[in-house]
Amino acid sequence: MERVAAIQINARLGDVAYNLDHVRELAEDAANQGAKVIAVPEFFTTPIVLDDCVYQCALPPENQALDLLKEIATNYEVIIGGSYLEKRNGEVFNCYALVRPDGTVTRHYKDIPTMIENAFYIGGNTAGIHQTDMGRIGTALCWEQIRTQTVRRLKDKVDFLMTGTHWWTIPKNWSIFKSTFAKMDVENLEIFRSTPGVLAKLLGTVNIHASHCGSVAGKYPILPWGRWDVPYETDLLGETQIIDNTGQILARRTREDGPGVIIADVDLTAQKPTLELPDRFWIPELPSTIKLMWHHQNILSKPLYKRAKKERKI
Fold it and tell me: Could you name the CATH architecture of 2-310?
């Protein structure tokens, strides 16, 4: 049995220095409780919403966020990983950096940006498999966890998972379509709550899943090229979880619990999957309304990345 941890953060938009201090405090708490593996959320340097300040949070390959992970890994002799926006060769990626106790680093770049994320980075093409002294670690970020292609790239190739999310609610400040949005919000939360456990069952592995809580506000594109953006307020859904290799929740932190650390002692050995992979793009049956929002925001957000490059915001 190994002691593992996942941290849940309440990050501030665009405030990298504050967010790194926040992560440091929680990660050191986890290490002091004896955790040998510590999962940090996706986008631990800033929440993501349509706001120009996010462009300023893209970091070079060698950066202060990576330095923090290296410091914690080497000082406490732990494996630690999480994601941030990384600028490399003129493009920005959602980079999951995994650091070992000796300070060595391997990276995974998220495959497909989710909705408004397309305004800030492009997709990568990595396996997300990290060889370590504790076994082969698979990494997946947010909606990678609900795509069948993620299971195909990791199945029978990893011993356990370190995952992270930055999963939001449906807009909470809009007065139109209240009943539709209320239904979507319930469906969205149900999908998210079950996602770490479903992925663990599909792969037969422990899933150490870190997440965000708190609120964030920015803009939401309605028409292309910034012709019509509306104010957008959302909550980040929490659900930091440690799942065993049968899909059972061993530790959990909801958004109502706020920021903090969860700890569990787990068997990191993979076993036979207990759930069959469906033959479709998405693992869950996504409601048509959520699919529509996904396509709409993808289409409107991709040109914003190109415009940001042209305007040298990237």
Answer: 4-Layer Sandwich (3.60)
